[in-house]
Design brief:
The complex is a heterodimer of chains A (259) and B (291). Chain A has 259 residues and is an alpha/beta fold. Chain A contains 7 helices and 7 strands. In chain A, helix 3 packs across helix 7. By secondary structure, chain B is an alpha/beta fold. Chain B starts with 6 loop residues before the first strand and ends in a 13-residue tail after the last helix. The chains are: A alpha/beta (259), B alpha/beta (291).
């Protein structure tokens, strides 16, 4: 049973040691942290992190991101560089999205059960929905942390340069999330999403498969594209689920919503 | 090979990985770089405000040009540097103030006015200077001038091995300073580029600077706009910034910790870049490719 879900983007710059001395989009980091705290608020039995990757598969729950992949550092131990002195794990480093999800859980102090589920970026909607449905059928109280981003082609300076279709694609995603209209997420065009470099398409469709029967209510905690990539932070919970109190996912804290 | 240790100057403690800019503030009408720029006391104090804003960790107040010229006796040197040192101290209680002098009489007055460091560019010509540093709890720079008297130019100088001579000279001065009672954490060594050296010697000292750093003493380098850079590039004194910054970067990479400089902002940027490459300092702000 899915009790709640939080959506967070997965840019490397969420990792606090990758961006240097200056905090970069602190309001985005804060919104993600608050969304994850909200997710943990009534003690789910398990957190499933769902994020895009090259291939579908489950990763070792003890895995972590290897920041050195993004910021290799010198090899002397006193260095401040982020590639050095990070958490050591025997597991293979996680894909970016799962690694950031694991980081958010760590930083929220979560020590409970976690599953780390990669969904291949080329999986069709039906496969994604099936993955989600199986998650929802599992016994126990499961909260989802869904990692993924909108288009990376929203401006001339965006990583993927400007694509005029980007704004419409991202607006539709946001509308669907706000409305709890998860069926619309299942209808996102896979080819367009790939062309727009929108990594969130597949994990959002997993979310849709997991929660579409629950008619969720949603609250957007952050939306913005400070670097030409659409970032969306949102909280969803079933309209009348076991965790449902009738209240929405709660008002966002000050400064966490960019609307 | 000895580890670098903390450097103490004034009330401040600098860790081994910190790279420090020592800004030159000349109280002279006739120094080689922009002569007379800060001869006027108000202009000199403005220069201090500017270099502090640009990231200087230390100011180095000098009253006598290194090159030969009109005689400047101790009384005149004191008149040029000491009231100014006191004025800087009034404005900046915590700023590290260095006074560039070889004379113990000047050093005494400067320390009494608030100087934290005596920058002896002339290789311990006046042995009592270290005693003054000890008496006031100040630091001292032990440099290598190849035995030349102050304000003289090298003439056909030759060394079997200039780096060995630099090491022998600076280490013996450091030992002398320790024996005189100077706190070891307040002693620096300086190869003194161009002092008692031709351009080849200064280049060799630069190339082998790691040998100085390996002694464990913090290394100060003073090469800003100097002749060995001018001869390396065949450029006049006002076109030596690029060369100066190149030597700054190489010296930092090889272990120098204090950089005496005219152009503070540029030097600070070079040193920060080196620190970031080394991993001693995170970059200022990183977003490229991470969005």
């Amino acid at each position: 049973m899915i009790t709640a879900a939080a959506l967070c983007p997965s840019p490397p710059l969420l990792h606090p040691t990758l961006t240097g001395r200056e905090a970069v989009v602190p309001e985005l980091r804060a919104a993600c942290a608050r969304a994850v705290s909200w997710l943990l608020r009534d003690d789910p039995g398990e957190i499933a992190v769902v994020g895009p990757a090259v291939a579908t598969g489950e990763w070792d729950a003890a895995g972590r991101l290897d920041p050195a992949a993004f910021a290799p550092g010198p090899d002397h131990p006193a260095a401040f560089a982020p590639g050095v002195g990070g958490p050591r794990t025997r597991s293979a480093p996680l894909p970016l999205s799962l690694g950031l999800g694991a980081l958010l859980l760590d930083r929220a102090g979560y020590r409970g059960r976690r599953r780390l589920l990669a969904v291949g970026q080329d999986e069709p909607a039906s496969t994604c929905a099936g993955l989600g449905a199986r998650l929802g059928e599992r016994p126990g109280r499961i909260a989802l942390l869904v990692m993924g981003d909108g288009s990376a082609r929203r401006s001339l300076k965006a990583p993927g340069y400007l694509d005029p279709r980007a704004a419409g694609f991202d607006a539709e995603v946001e509308r669907a999330v706000r409305a709890g209209d998860l069926d619309s997420l299942l209808r996102l065009d896979q080819d367009l999403a790939r062309e727009l470099m929108a990594t969130g398409r597949a994990p959002w469709q997993v979310l849709a498969g997991a929660m579409r029967e629950l008619a969720p209510v949603a609250e957007v905690r952050y939306r913005g594209d400070p670097f030409g990539v659409a970032y969306l932070v949102a909280c969803l919970q079933p309209r009348a689920g076991p965790a449902g109190t009738g209240a929405g996912p709660g008002r966002p804290g000050p400064g966490s919503v960019v609307e | 090979m000895s580890e670098q240790r903390d450097l103490r100057l004034g009330r401040q403690v600098f860790r081994p990985e910190q790279l420090l800019v020592m800004a030159i503030v000349n109280r002279t009408p006739d120094s080689f770089y922009r002569p007379g720029l800060t001869w006027d006391p108000a202009a000199a104090l403005d220069r201090v405000h500017a270099v502090v804003a640009e990231g200087a960790d230390i100011v180095d107040v000098g009253g006598v040009p290194a090159r030969p010229g009109d005689d400047v006796d101790a009384a005149e040197e004191i008149r040029r540097t000491v009231p100014f040192t006191a004025a800087v101290r009034d404005s900046y209680p915590d700023l590290v103030i260095s006074v560039d002098t070889w004379r113990h009489e000047v050093g005494r007055e400067a320390c009494a006015a608030g100087a934290d460091l005596l920058n002896d560019s002339w290789g311990g010509w006046d042995p009592r200077l270290a005693e003054v540093a000890a008496e006031f709890g100040a630091g001292i720079v032990c440099s290598h001038a190849g035995g030349l008297p102050p304000r003289t130019r090298p003439f056909r100088v030759a060394y079997d091995d200039v780096v060995r001579d630099v090491l022998a000279g600076t280490l013996s001065l450091a030992a002398r300073a320790v024996a005189a009672g100077v706190e070891p954490a307040r002693i620096l060594i300086d190869p003194a580029h161009d002092f008692g050296k031709n351009t080849w010697h200064s280049l060799q000292v630069t190339r082998r600077l790691a040998e100085m750093a390996a002694t464990g003493w913090p290394v100060l380098v003073s090469m800003s706009n100097k002749d060995f850079i001018g001869e390396t590039l065949d450029v006049p004194v006002d076109e030596r910034l690029a060369g100066t910054l190149a030597v700054t970067a190489v010296s930092a990479w090889l272990g120098a910790r204090v950089f005496r400089a005219h152009q503070v902002r540029e030097t600070r940027q070079v040193l920060n870049t080196v620190s970031v490459i080394r991993g001693d300092l995170p970059p200022a702000r990183v977003v490229r490719g991470l969005a």
